[in-house]
Design brief:
Elements: E1 5-7, E2 10-12, E3 18-22, E4 29-34, H1 38-56, H2 60-76, H3 78-89, H4 93-114, E5 120-128, E6 137-147, E7 150-154, H5 162-173, E8 177-181, H6 188-200, E9 207-209, H7 215-223, E10 229-233, H8 236-249, E11 252-256, E12 262-265, H9 271-283, E13 295-299, H10 300-314, H11 335-351, E14 354-357, E15 376-379, H12 386-389, E16 396-402, H13 405-413, E17 417-418, E18 420-424, H14 428-437, E19 442-445, E20 459-460, E21 463-464, H15 469-475, E22 477-485
Parallel strand pairs: 7-8, 7-10, 8-9, 10-11, 12-13, 12-18, 13-16, 15-16, 18-19
Antiparallel strand pairs: 1-2, 3-4, 5-6, 6-22, 11-21, 14-15, 17-20
Helix pairs in contact: 1-7, 2-4, 2-6, 3-4, 4-5, 9-10
Family: Belongs to the aldehyde dehydrogenase family.
Pfam families: Aldedh (PF00171)
GO molecular function: oxidoreductase activity, acting on the aldehyde or oxo group of donors, NAD or NADP as acceptor
């Protein structure tokens, strides 16, 4: 199975050969990933299309049982698959265990239940008079959610378990078939997910996993005529290109794109709570998460106090190898991304920001290997700086002061992005008032926590559509209306 693609229920040799997957922590080789050809991607889409009819008619209870068994298998293989996730992503052990593999299993379990959720809803009858459309009568109506068809799932590198599971599980629960295209940096975990589904009894062609670094592989996964929908998580720039291709053939889209989360901290906020929430940006996936509160908009009266607390907090942010005990901040995904993050820090300095802490490359290993970035806090920032406006996707936080509530809202909304924002205030009425004015798909009030049944998605350039909870089931379905004479 290792090093092979999963197409039509078979493990097949890749026509493009293999490439090395590198451990971001020490630059060792984790394994060999397959490189599909565009023809193999189209073959996977054709297999998914051929399997769709039978799978879409499968009893919901059978789909639920397969998803449940897949969750059981993931839990059985928890430790070795955690080690693999840690190695190919560079995530510290706790994150690889709990937030990657653990969340992946939980999402299969959640959508096993989701497969049993009602897909029909009766609508109020309508009395009609005689006319060109027929005799007078009473018309009944039913709203029915139907599967979309073949869904291409293109997933992000920051979480090769939770992100694919959050697409594949609800898509399968609704009766769709899927072609999964993992991020090329860390695809090995996604093939383990396919292995779990195959062992769980998913029929041939229902799940297909293809992979490759070539742009042509991704293009084939999007523009194949057998694909009815594309679900993508990644950068706004790539999302725009995918949307253009989907628009030509009217494919359905679900897009979770970039973010530049604003964290508004009022003068009456619990600064320790704000510090802890904002501090997750530095530690959680080393800032490689689109929901991170990376843009701190703080009342001028508590600006210095919050900066002091964040500076002190960073003293406890141990940067280390992912498997080492006590590591809080691991590496970023690649040397190229490390260089990109560091270039933004230098750009911020040139723009006039002050580096309150961080900014230097940490010496984690004696041999200098690993793609480590120091958690960095940039202060004296203004909203016109590129470091404030552009997504850095690393352990970097920028701080912008404000004087009035109106100014705070204006600063927060002056962004191309609108995924998740945050408000910290001791006045619940003000916090909720401000939250309602923020142009973001989600707002955390005095918390960075997420309710995993709440809709998730973005305003503006942060995406199209909503998923999570039952909203994911809706996202992977079409609504059909059936009308009859009562």
């Amino acid at each position: 199975m290792d090093g092979k693609l999963f197409i039509g229920g078979e493990w097949v040799e890749p026509q493009g050969g293999h490439y090395e997957v590198v451990d971001p922590g020490d630059e060792s080789v984790v394994g060999l990933a397959p490189e599909a050809s565009p023809a193999q991607v189209r073959q996977a889409a054709r297999a998914a299309a051929e399997a769709f009819g039978a799978w879409s008619r499968t009893r919901p209870q059978e789909r639920a049982a397969i998803l449940d068994r897949a969750a059981d298998i993931i839990q059985r293989e928890y430790e070795p698959w955690t080690a693999l996730a840690r190695a190919e992503t560079g995530a510290p052990t706790g994150i690889a265990r709990g937030m990657q593999v653990g969340v992946g299993a939980a999402r299969f379990r959640r959508y096993a239940r989701g497969a049993l959720e009602p897909v029909e809803k009766g609508l109020p009858p309508q009395v009609t008079e005689a006319g060109p459309m027929g005799k007078a009568g009473v018309l009944g109506a039913l709203e029915v959610r139907q599967p979309v068809g073949v869904v291409t799932c293109i997933t992000s590198y920051n979480n090769p378990w939770a992100n694919p599971a959050g697409k594949v599980a609800p898509a399968l629960a609704m009766g769709n078939t899927v072609v999964v295209k993992p991020a090329p940096q860390d695809p090995l975990s996604v093939f383990k997910m396919a292995q779990a589904l195959a062992e769980a009894g998913v029929p041939a062609g229902v799940v297909n996993v293809v992979n490759g670094r070539s742009v042509a592989v991704g293009e084939a996964a999007v523009d194949s005529p057998d694909v009815d929908m594309v679900s993508f998580t990644g950068s706004t720039a790539v999302g725009q290109r995918i949307a253009e291709v989907c628009g030509r053939s009217m494919k359905r889209q679900l897009m979770e794109l970039g973010g530049k989360g604003a964290a508004i901290v009022f003068e009456d906020a619990d600064l320790d709570a704000a510090m802890m929430g904002i501090g997750t940006t530095f530690s959680f996936y080393s800032g490689q998460i689109c929901t991170a509160p990376t843009r701190v908009i703080v009342h001028r009266s508590v600006h210095d106090a919050l900066v002091e607390k964040l500076t002190g907090y960073l003293a406890f942010m141990k940067v280390g190898e992912p498997a080492a005990q006590g590591t809080v901040v691991g590496p970023v995904i690649s040397a190229a991304h490390r260089d990109r993050v560091e270039s933004y820090v230098e750009l911020g300095r040139k723009e006039g920001a002050r580096i309150a802490v961080g900014g230097d490359r940490p010496a984690v290993r004696a041999d200098g290997k690993g793609f480590y970035v120091a958690p960095t806090l940039l202060v004296d920032c203004t909203n016109d700086m590129r470091v404030v406006r552009e997504e850095i996707f690393g352990p970097v936080v920028v701080v912008v002061p404000f004087d009035t509530e109106e100014e705070a809202v204006a600063l927060a909304n002056d962004s191309d992005f609108g995924l998740i924002s945050y408000v910290w205030s001791g006045d619940p009425a003000r916090a909720f008032r401000v939250a309602r004015r923020l142009r973001s798909g989600g707002v955390g009030v005095n918390t960075i926590g997420r309710n995993m049944e709440a809709p998730f998605g973005g305003f503006k350039r942060s995406g199209v559509g909503r998923d999570v909870g039952s909203y994911a089931l809706h996202a992977y379905s079409e609504i059909q209306s059936i009308v009859w004479t009562a």
